């Protein structure tokens, strides 16, 4: 409409009953940039679904493309097969967690963990369009090692057919995080117990080349940072 | 009965329909020692349960004591409150995953991750006995930092009352793991793409002491390994 002001996309996910925690609501965030950053830093999620009335939680790779998450696997794997058979899709909960530090307090009660997590509720849908599937497979490889998809042999028709991909839109999303240091009770501060933060070390060790690389194949630049 | 031969406890968990994967069954294991080792190496699990018919997956700390897993949290947290209200307990799935290495194959299709995971299906029960709760709280602290529970102020009555503990028996359990190197197709071996294993680095950085430690409080020996 003429004269309508330009609007920027909302910077936060709308809350729902299941994205507002019953406790420590101060640790919750719905900020899209923060959610994206947590999602993009990881590549293994825990995917929950319901089978015969009982919960199932499986670790699996994921990638984010805009406001969508994608998970892939064999067409024979349970959640992917269930998604393909479900109409209009499979209710899932996809959770990504980074542990950043151990918090050792003077009191056992105030021991804690610094972490950042994202919980996504929604309905997963089967991705059947071959072009979207190809895009997702590249995204999954690049999500783990940026730049890698272009430096590998793409999936052929048979491999593509053996791979199922499911999509989960980022609508009902929350992040939760603990940061900072020790929070002991004032009356515990004089206790003779060491207290502090033990940060987790993260990263990769030196890549180990497969036997029988084609002659002249060097470690690529995108792995040099590892 | 007289003359009955001594039997050692079974070394493996019995399989069930939901602990046998639909694919890569060669990656599954039911060996108790392996399951225990994977569980004892981690301290953050992903706990799945069903709320209003939909799955929920939350990260939380856990500890193993023999053939039982324990999870704790505020009495106000959702899964713990739901367990306390459920009769005869809350169906859950508790999953622990370690990522060990990235597997970069010449083909995008054979990219993978070396990992070790344990999936436990069962019914969580509220722990109400104060002595068992105290034992669990010590175990949770010691599970993250062995030796720490004895070097911290134990929970007082108020803290104990504010903490809920749930128990999950290790009956329906499976491990799943991928180890080893790159598995490319024979016809891809001559491709000019680097391939190999990128191991993840794990560990801790130097502990950072809280401000205001009691005078003379040194870094304890059990943290020196960090």
Automatic annotation (TrEMBL), chains A, B:
<dbReference type="InterPro" id="IPR024747">
    <property type="entry name" value="Pyridox_Oxase-rel"/>
</dbReference>
<dbReference type="InterPro" id="IPR012349">
    <property type="entry name" value="Split_barrel_FMN-bd"/>
</dbReference>
<keyword id="KW-0560">Oxidoreductase</keyword>
<feature type="region of interest" description="Disordered">
    <location>
        <begin position="1"/>
        <end position="27"/>
    </location>
</feature>
<dbReference type="Pfam" id="PF12900">
    <property type="entry name" value="Pyridox_ox_2"/>
</dbReference>
<feature type="compositionally biased region" description="Low complexity">
    <location>
        <begin position="1"/>
        <end position="16"/>
    </location>
</feature>
<protein>
    <submittedName>
        <fullName>Pyridoxamine 5'-phosphate oxidase family protein</fullName>
        <ecNumber>1.-.-.-</ecNumber>
    </submittedName>
</protein>
<dbReference type="GO" id="GO:0016491">
    <property type="term" value="F:oxidoreductase activity"/>
</dbReference>
């Amino acid at each position: 409409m003429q004269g309508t002001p330009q609007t920027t996309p909302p910077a936060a996910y709308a809350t729902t009953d299941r994205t507002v925690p019953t406790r420590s609501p101060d640790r919750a965030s719905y900020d899209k940039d923060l959610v994206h950053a947590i999602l993009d830093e990881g590549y293994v999620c825990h995917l929950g679904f319901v089978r015969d009335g009982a919960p199932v939680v499986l670790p699996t790779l994921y990638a984010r493309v805009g406001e969508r998450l994608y998970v892939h696997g064999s067409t024979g794997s349970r959640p992917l097969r269930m998604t393909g058979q479900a109409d209009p899709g499979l209710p899932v909960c996809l959770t990504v967690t980074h542990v950043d530090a151990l918090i050792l307090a003077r009191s056992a009660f105030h021991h804690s963990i610094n972490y950042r997590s994202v919980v996504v509720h929604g309905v997963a849908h089967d991705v059947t369009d071959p072009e979207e599937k190809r895009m997702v497979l590249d995204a999954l490889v690049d999500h783990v090692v940026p730049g890698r998809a272009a430096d590998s042999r793409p999936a052929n028709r048979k491999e593509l057919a053996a791979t199922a991909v499911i999509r989960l839109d980022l609508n009902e999303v929350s992040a939760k995080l603990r940061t900072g240091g020790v929070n002991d009770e004032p009356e515990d501060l004089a206790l003779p117990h060491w207290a502090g933060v033990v940060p987790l070390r993260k990263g990769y060790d030196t890549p180990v080349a497969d036997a029988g690389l084609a002659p002249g194949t060097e470690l690529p630049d995108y792995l040099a940072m590892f």
